[in-house]
Amino acid sequence: MHLAALSIIVPDYEAGIAFFCGTLGFTLSEDIDQGRKRWVTVTAPGGQLRIVLARADTDRQRAAIGNQGAGRVWLFLETDDFARDHAALQARGIVFEEAPRHEPYGTVAVFRDPFGNRWDLIETHG
Q: Burial level of 75, CB count in 10 A (0-12/13-18/19+)?
């Protein structure tokens, strides 16, 4: 077994696709109309894990947008060249919460997506 996908709650599909595919450079893997909703998945370059963009339909779901990690970093975007990807993301409008820092496990900086989720951009030391 392996973890194949996880869901991120977004306000609407188009905003999710714009961020993940436009700003982050992910691939739109699936966009299947199911009538009342769509099955929309995106995949990071070189990745196998799909992210299901789940449109919030209820007040409870809308309240969870950007808070699925309870305010903590819960998404980790790993790179093999931190400086290159940090600069590229900044050029695409990503605002980092901090300057890059060097930890025993690698180089890391935190950013938020437009929905409020906190991410690490990280280059691990192998």
A: middle
pTM of the model: 0.92
Domain with 48 in it:
1-65
Query: Are 112 and 83 found together in one domain?
Result: yes
Residue 94, amino acid:
I
DSSP, residue by residue, 42-91? EE-TT---EEEEEE--SHHHHHHTT-TTTTSEEEEEE-S-HHHHHHHHHH
Residues 61 and 78 in one domain: no
| pLDDT tens sequence across 72-113 | 999 999 999 999 999 999 999 999 999 999 999 999 999 999
